[in-house]
Amino acid sequence: MNTEFLEALRDLEKEKGIAVDVLLEAIEAALLSAYKRNFGSLQNARVHIDRETGDFKVYSQRTVVEDVEDERLEISLEDARRIDPRFNLGDVVEDEVTPRNFGRIAAQTAKQVVVQRIREAERNIIFEEFANREGDILTGVVQRIENKNVYIELGKTEAILTPSEQMPGENYQHGERLKTYIVEVKKTTKGPQILVSRTHPGLLKRLFEMEVPELQEGVVELKSIAREAGYRSKIAVYSKDENVDPVGACVGPKGMRVQNIVNELNGEKIDIIKWNPDPSKYVASSLSPAKVVAVEVWEDEKVARVIVPDYQLSLAIGKEGQNARLAAKLTGWKIDIKSESQMADLYPEYSEEGQTDFDDYADEYTDEYSYEEDASPILPDDLSYEDNK
C-alpha cells in the first residue's frame, strides 16, 4: 500500500460518502484476520496502517505479568523492562512481526474490503432513497415473474409485487410499465427489499392526487376511501370552498380525470361521493348509485338504518353485498338496509301516507357521481368499520 492507495480512498470518500478512516479501520480488521488465518498465529496481534504513507505493519501484543504461563500472550516484567524500563505490570508490549510476503495478501484483502464497503454504501443510499418514499407511487418496468412474484425494475434496484398485492384478473408481461404503491422498504443482507402493491388503498389516493390539481393544492380534501381491488371503489371528497364542486373536480372535464385512473386500474369501478358532516346524509350518499328514501342514525353505536324503495333494494346492497359493504367501510358506520315494504311489515304505522315526500328526500340525500368502468374499493389505514349485516 502507498500514497496512491490513500488517494484512491479519498476519491471514494467524495464519490460514495464513505469516510477514509472507516475504510482504513475495516481494512486493518480484515488484515488482522488474514494474518491469523494465513500464518497460523495464535498470539494477540494488531495491524496498523499509516494514515500518511499508506504503509502497514503487524505487531504482536504481550501483556506484562509476574509469572508467564503462555509466552505467546505474556511477558515477564523483567524482560519487558529490558525493552523499556517504563513498563509496569498490566502494560502491553508490542513487537513488529510483519511477514515478508504479507504484501500480496494485504493488497487482495484491502481490495475485498473496499469493494464490500462500496456495495454496502450503495445499498444504504438506495435504502434511504426508497425508505423516504414509503406511501408513494412509483413507476417501474416488469423485469421477470418468479413463483407468481412480479419483480419490477427501478433503476439500480427492483421491487417485489407479491401475489397477495396483485389485482385480481391482471396479467403482467415482461417489459410492461406499471404504477405501484410502496408499502414497505426493508433492510436485508442482500440489500434493500422494496415491497409494492396494486391493491393498497393508498394507490387510489395517490392516483387521484396526481390527476386532480385541487387535491394537490388542498382546495379539495379526500376524506375517506373504501376499496375492493379489481372490482369497485368508493371515495368521499369535500371542499370548504362553496364555489368548488369536489365531485366535479375529481371527475374532470368530460370525465377525463377519473377515466385515466380507471384505465390505470384496468376498469375498476369508482364511485365518487360528496362527504357530509351530517351522518345521515353521508350514509345515504355512500350507497350510491342507489337512491335513499330515509336514514335513521344511532350516533353512539354508529349504526344507521337506511330505507330504500323496493326496486332499489338489490342495487343498494349490491352484488354479494358489495355496495353495502363498501359504504360501511367508507363511512365507518354499520348500515342496515330495509326496503319500504319491509319497513311496512315491521312497523304497521309506516303507512303509505307519508311517502309522498320520499322522492324529494332522496334527492336531498344523493349527491354523488358513480363512474362505471369496473372498479374496486379502498380502505384507508386510519378507518375502522363494520360490514353491513
UniProtKB/TrEMBL annotation:
Designated name of the protein: Transcription termination/antitermination protein NusA
Concerning its family, UniProt says: Belongs to the NusA family.
Q: Where in the cell is it found?
A: Cytoplasm
Q: Does the keyword RNA-binding apply?
A: yes
Q: Which gene encodes it?
A: nusA
Q: Which HAMAP family match?
A: NusA_B (MF_00945_B)
User: Taking every annotated instance into account, which residue ranges of this chain make up the domain S1 motif?
Assistant: 135-199
Instruction: State which residue ranges cross the membrane.
Output: none
Q: Which Pfam families match?
A: KH_NusA_1st, KH_NusA_2nd, NusA_N, S1
CDD domains, alphabetically? KH-II_NusA_rpt1 (cd02134), KH-II_NusA_rpt2 (cd22529), S1_NusA (cd04455)
Keyword check for Cytoplasm, yes or no: yes
Its subunit composition reads:
Monomer. Binds directly to the core enzyme of the DNA-dependent RNA polymerase and to nascent RNA.
- Kindly give the InterPro entries that the UniProt entry links to this protein: KH_dom, KH_dom-like_a/b, KH_NusA_2nd, KH_sf_prok-type, NA-bd_OB-fold, NusA_N_sf, S1_domain, TF_NusA
SUPFAM superfamilies listed in its UniProt record: Nucleic acid-binding proteins, Prokaryotic type KH domain (KH-domain type II), Transcription factor NusA, N-terminal domain
Q: Where is this region: Disordered?
A: 369-389
Q: Which PANTHER family match?
A: TRANSCRIPTION TERMINATION FACTOR NUSA, TRANSCRIPTION TERMINATION_ANTITERMINATION PROTEIN NUSA
Q: Which GO terms describe its biological process?
A: DNA-templated transcription termination; transcription antitermination
